């Protein structure tokens, strides 16, 4: 009598496991996909090796003059020589520690917010939002506490980009929240109308127009001799513009909160402000993190538009450097460098928002 | 051009507003009071104004402002620069944000008459020219019929090009780009045979080519572009100072006075040199110190020095003097005498 012998399970066919299996499943599963894969590989072959050769293999890395570059590949010497200008603009070298200190201070203040069990978070946040801007202003502008006055016309480079972006973000979020609440205030028609008008007006014009108006038209309406700081004009323009966008993002979040939450808050006897700030708004903001970060990233990149009003942000200082007669013909290097810096910042913001979403993910999945 | 029309409208409005507040001598008084000259320059134009590695502004337009500061304060460093884009330059001057506009701006009747500003002189006689591949072996712009021409959009360059080819009954195909960088890249890639722009800029664009020697600038100039500094109308004193700061540099070149020999030349027997350097005091009535011209030449240099180090033989651009040579050396730069 034959006994049934337990045989080892057959392995799945080679073509469906391991690298081959993965390739078959993901890249070559249909003739069309196989063709597209090959096409993509061909395109990569066409573009990546020449770029690497230009950017790394044949590039010149050391030197101080444009003559030190062979021009066979990228001339990173240009970036090295100008790095200080790309970072700080024309901020006097001897005073640049002030910029560094301002940034370091912000990092030191913000870091504890990431620690889960830090008890004084609320106080720290208040410190960052209310006291820090004053310190930063005095440090950067100077003219008091024995610090040399540095005009904003000397600000530039990545530093200026960050100033515009951070001020824009910090001002736009609270303003946006207030505008969103105002737009939803059904029982206050005048306030609502004002908020709607503000939002629609600012959303209806391109940022470039806002900046252009602030720099070209505004001076005509001021009495002669009274000149607003150019940077300040741009900052106000950017902040108001972004606030309008932020308002719509936040409003989207508020609309996503089920009616039951409002009713529950009312049932608990909470007033308007308490129910908004303790119940509905935190949930709404959590919902729209991707939207808020999206707006922030767009804002960060939009800062490069200040170029058209003659402010030297990162991109502007690179373009100005391109017109130095001793360094003509290195614009590609400059633009590649700018792209890398922008990417690092935007990618960083995007990762942070994903981390924040995961951390705040306390309830229902959406 | 649409931009033009808008500009005119904007300026007319501006003028109406500015007219109420302007009064004579206002600019000069304000400049003396604040202690420096606020000068509007290009935010980056090779040879005319651009920041160097150290963040110091360099260029022929920049040096004009330094000369004015030297004349007014005896110190060429008492000047602050405001980088301006083409669109905001006139507003900045009209609204009083700057005292001088020295930003490669062409002197035209509409600007003199319609913008409420006055041009004080010509720093650089420019004109639209052609950059062409050497291998085409064309020696004159009149042989360019049928050529593909790369041109920057929205500039008068585009109009001049059409006018010139139309006038000479030649055919051409324009390829329009938005920025100078794009234009030069496509010229390099062979998308067009000829590149047209202001001649002073063609030399800079040529350096941007991977092989600068593969292209030449044709001798013809098809438009008049006299570039010069301008000031707000309504302050004749200030106008005079800016105008004569440039004249002093030209006169110094003519008399052979430069930044190196300015001190020795003070002992010169030539009465014209003596008057220029303030050794023989004359009633110039400009409202500045008697050694104003000496300070300009000593600290900034004469016209030849300024031209040479920024755009001429001493710079990477190597532009020939051409029209910008002195009147007695084949050019048209001519300054009235200081006496």
Notes on the structure:
The complex is a heterodimer of chains A (366) and B (339). Chain A is mainly α. Chain A folds into two domains: 93-150; 154-360, MetI-like (MetI-like fold). In chain A, 67% of the residues lie in helices and 0% in strands. In chain A, helix 9 (230-255) crosses helix 11 (272-287) and helix 12 runs antiparallel to helix 14 (331-360). The longest helix of chain A is centred in the C-terminal third of the chain and has 30 residues, at 331-360. Chain B has 13 helices and 14 strands. Chain B is of the alpha/beta class. In chain B, the strands form five sheets. A five-stranded mixed β-sheet of chain B has the order 10-9-11-8-12, with helices on both faces. A three-stranded parallel β-sheet of chain B has the order 4-1-5. In chain B, helix 6 (156-167) links the parallel strand 9 (147-152) and strand 10 (172-177). The chains are: A mainly alpha (366), B alpha/beta (339).
Task: Supply database-style keywords.
heterodimer, A: 366 residues, mainly alpha, MetI-like fold, 2 domains, globular, B: 339 residues, alpha/beta, D-Maltodextrin-Binding Protein, domain 2, five-stranded mixed beta sheet, 13 helices
User: How many β-strand stretches of chain B?
Assistant: 14
What is the end-to-end distance of chain A?
61 Å
Poorly predicted runs of 5 or more residues of chain A? none
- % residues in beta strands of chain A: under 5%
User: What do we call the CATH homologous superfamily of the largest domain in chain B?
Assistant: Periplasmic binding protein-like II
> Which CATH architecture of the largest domain in chain B would you pick?
3-Layer(aba) Sandwich
Order of helices and strands of chain A: HHHHHHHHHHHHHH
């Amino acid at each position: 009598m034959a006994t049934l012998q337990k045989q080892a399970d057959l392995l799945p066919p080679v073509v469906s496991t391991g690298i081959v299996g993965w390739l078959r499943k993901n890249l070559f599963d249909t003739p069309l996909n196989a063709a597209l894969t090959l096409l993509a590989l061909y395109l990569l072959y066409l573009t990546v090796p020449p770029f690497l050769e230009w950017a790394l293999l044949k590039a010149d890395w050391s030197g101080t003059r444009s003559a030190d570059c062979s021009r066979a590949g990228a001339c990173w010497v240009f970036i090295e020589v100008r790095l200080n200008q790309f970072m700080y603009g024309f901020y006097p070298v001897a005073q640049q520690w002030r910029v560094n200190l301002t940034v370091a201070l912000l990092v030191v203040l913000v870091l504890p917010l990431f620690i889960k069990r830090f008890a004084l978070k609320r106080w720290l946040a208040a410190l960052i939002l209310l006291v820090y801007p004053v310190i930063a202003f005095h440090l950067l502008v100077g003219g008091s506490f024995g610090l040399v006055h540095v005009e904003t016309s000397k600000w530039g480079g990545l530093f200026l980009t960050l100033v515009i972006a951070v001020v824009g973000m910090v001002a736009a979020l609270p303003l946006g929240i207030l505008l969103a609440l105002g737009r939803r205030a059904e029982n206050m028609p005048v306030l609502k109308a004002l908020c709607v008008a503000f939002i629609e007006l600012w959303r209806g014009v391109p940022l470039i127009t806002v900046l252009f108006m602030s720099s070209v038209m505004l001076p005509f309406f001021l009495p002669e001799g009274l000149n607003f700081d150019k940077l300040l004009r741009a900052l106000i323009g950017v902040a108001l513009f972004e606030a309008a966008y932020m308002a719509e993002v936040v409003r989207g979040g508020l609309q996503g909160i089920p009616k039951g939450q409002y009713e529950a808050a009312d049932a608990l006897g909470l007033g308007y402000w308490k129910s908004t700030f303790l119940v509905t708004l935190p949930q709404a903001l959590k919902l729209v993190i991707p939207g808020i970060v999206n707006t922030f990233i767009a804002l960060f990149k939009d800062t490069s538009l200040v170029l058209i009003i003659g402010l030297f942000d990162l991109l502007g200082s690179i373009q100005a450097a391109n017109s130095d007669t001793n360094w003509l013909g290195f614009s590609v290097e400059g633009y590649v460098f700018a792209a890398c810096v922008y990417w690092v910042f935007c990618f960083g913001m995007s990762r942070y928002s994903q981390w924040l979403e995961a951390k705040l993910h306390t309830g229902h999945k959406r | 051009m649409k931009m033009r029309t808008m500009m005119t409208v904007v300026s007319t409005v501006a003028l109406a507003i500015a007219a109420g507040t302007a009064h004579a001598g206002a600019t000069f008084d304000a400049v003396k009071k604040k202690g420096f000259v606020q000068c509007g320059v290009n935010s980056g134009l090779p040879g005319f104004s651009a920041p160097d590695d150290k963040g110091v502004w360099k260029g022929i337009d920049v040096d004009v402002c330094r000369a004015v500061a030297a004349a007014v304060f005896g110190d060429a460093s008492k000047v602050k620069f405001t980088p301006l884009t083409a669109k905001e330059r006139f507003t900045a001057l009209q609204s009083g944000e700057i005292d001088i506009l020295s930003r490669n701006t062409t002197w035209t009747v509409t600007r003199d008459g319609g913008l409420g500003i006055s041009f004080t002189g010509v720093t650089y006689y420019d004109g639209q020219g052609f950059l062409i591949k050497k291998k085409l072996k064309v020696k004159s712009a009149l042989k360019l019929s049928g050529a593909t021409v790369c041109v920057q959009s929205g500039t008068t360059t585009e109009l001049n090009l059409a006018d010139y080819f139309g006038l000479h009954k030649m055919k051409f195909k324009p390829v329009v780009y938005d920025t100078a960088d794009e234009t030069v890249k496509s010229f390099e890639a062979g998308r067009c045979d000829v590149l047209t722009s202001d001649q002073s800029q063609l030399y800079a664009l040529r350096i941007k080519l991977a092989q600068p020697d593969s292209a030449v600038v044709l001798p013809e100039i098809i438009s008049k572009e006299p570039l010069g500094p301008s000031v707000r109308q309504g302050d004749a004193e200030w106008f005079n100072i800016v105008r004569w700061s440039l004249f002093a540099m030209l006169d110094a070149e003519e008399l052979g006075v430069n930044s190196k020999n300015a001190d020795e030349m003070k002992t010169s027997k030539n009465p014209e040199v003596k008057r220029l350097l303030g050794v023989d005091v004359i009633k110039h009535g400009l409202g500045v110190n008697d050694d104003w011209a000496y300070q300009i030449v000593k600290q900034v240099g004469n016209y030849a020095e300024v031209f040479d180090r920024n755009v001429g033989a001493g710079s990477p651009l190597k532009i020939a003097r051409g029209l910008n040579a002195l009147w007695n050396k084949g050019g048209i730069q001519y300054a009235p005498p200081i006496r």
